[in-house]
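In the current project phase, we have settled on a layout for protein records. One protein thus recorded is set out beneath this paragraph:
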Amino acid sequence: MQHDTLRRVDRPNGTGYKGLIQTSYGALTRVFGEPHRLGEDWIKQSDGKTNAEWAFQLGTMIITIHDFKEYKSAPTEVINWHIGGKGAPEQVVGFINRELQKAGEETKVMHLQQHGANK
C-alpha cells in the first residue's frame, strides 16, 4: 500500500535528524513502496553509512527514512530507522509513525529530537 499524498524527493538537501523509529523493512516497503535509493551505488554515495533511503515531500515538510550506520548486510535486517527532514520533529516522526499504524504495521518511536537541537 503505497502512500498517495507523498511526492518523492530526489535530492533532499538541508535535512536533519528528527528521531528514530523501530519497525521492519517490510512494513516500510508496504506503506511507502520500495526505497528510493538502494544498492551498491547508493552505499558508495553515502560513504557506506546508509544502505536504503526514502525521501518525500508532504506540503512544506521534507521527510527521509534511512538505516544510518546500521551496517547490516541487508536493509531487510534493520529494525531501527532514522527519520530526518525539515519540520518539527513531532510532525515529521509523527507522520511516519501514524502512517505505519494506520496500515496495521508494528512501529514504535524510539527517540524524538528536541526542538532547537537540530533544525
Summary: The first strand starts at residue 7 and ends at 8.
